[in-house]
Amino acid sequence: MRFMMDWMRQIVIAHMVKQKIAEVAPDGLWQHGFPEIAASNEDIQEAELILGIELDAGYKEFLRHANGWNSFFQAIDVFGIADLLGGKKQERANEILESLENLEDLCGFSRSELMAFAVSTEDIDLFIISKSNSHAPGAVFWLAGQVIDQFPSMEEWFLAMFDYNRREYELAVEGS
């Protein structure tokens, strides 16, 4: 059973952590963008019709509060609806996915069971989620040539990524 996350609260906290990183590392390597304005239910439903799939419930809740987030973690951009439907981020994600010949061996899912939802603009980091029609819907994987980490849900992924951001803040404070 999935836990119900307070997305608004967690996004606000996540943004505050990103701003703290920017304050202690103003000339840092990474951008520190804001989350995008929430997607409407109609936009989400339209995207699902175009994609021919039902989006993961946790990802839909994220989109209802932030329709994407550039530089969410370092150079990693979380897709908004427009990115799911095409564009440079989707192209980059597809290139990385295509380069992973042993995808099923890596994560236990076939390519058709997975959807990219975040990608690095600088490296080979890719985040994928198993589709609703897969054998285990909602599983999230962080790939960079191999599985870096995996999470049982979008909610767990979001919270873990902000543990990574908190660690980045701690390192920036130590380095200043």
TrEMBL record:
Domain Knr4/Smi1-like, first and last residues per copy: 38-160
Sections of the chain in a coiled coil: none
InterPro entries referenced in this protein's UniProt entry, alphabetically: Knr4/Smi1-like_dom (IPR018958), Knr4/Smi1-like_sf (IPR037883)
Record protein name field: SMI1/KNR4 family protein
